[in-house]
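Continuing the series of single-chain predictions for the mutant panel. This is the parent chain; the variants come on the following pages.
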Amino acid sequence: MAYGVVETTKISGRCFSFYNATNDIENGFVVKKGAPKQTTVGAETVDEREIYTVSVPAVTDKVYLVANPAWSYDDSRAENQNEDKFINKAGVPFRGYALFTDDKFGVSDYTITPVDASTAIAVGDYIGVDGTTMKLTDLGTSAPDLTARGFVGIVREVESYGVELLVGAGLPNGLIGNVGKKVVIEVIQNEDV
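Parent structure:
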């Protein structure tokens, strides 16, 4: 299974440390920043100074982009270092970024919920959240009501990467290799409504 890959080269936001005790979270997902994580020290419970809890963002929430460096301690196979093999495990702090108007970032197309199964994500589509998952959601080509949404972005590019290679018999369809798509999103707004 491939996990989300994120590109952050055009983000001006601050970096935060986040924590989720119960769920693995993919890079390229968005989260709502919560209260500081609590830790027990002896008999006392104290707030962490730099680590915040996360939750699923509501449609009206400001969001933070999950973008932890993708690296595995298991270097026995080169494949283990592929970004799409990396996931932020539950119970382990991870990195995320605040998003501001005019920031641009790229995510794997499969980390975005499409409008429907037959409609591919395209340049000019609006992106938001659905309030039920941490995945971004394709809102289609009609401009959404900005007063009713916390985060809104627009697709500026859909870029293919990788190659399909045809080989001899023995493999299904004779295909090896991997072709994917990166979706570049420009932030239009990101604020609590």
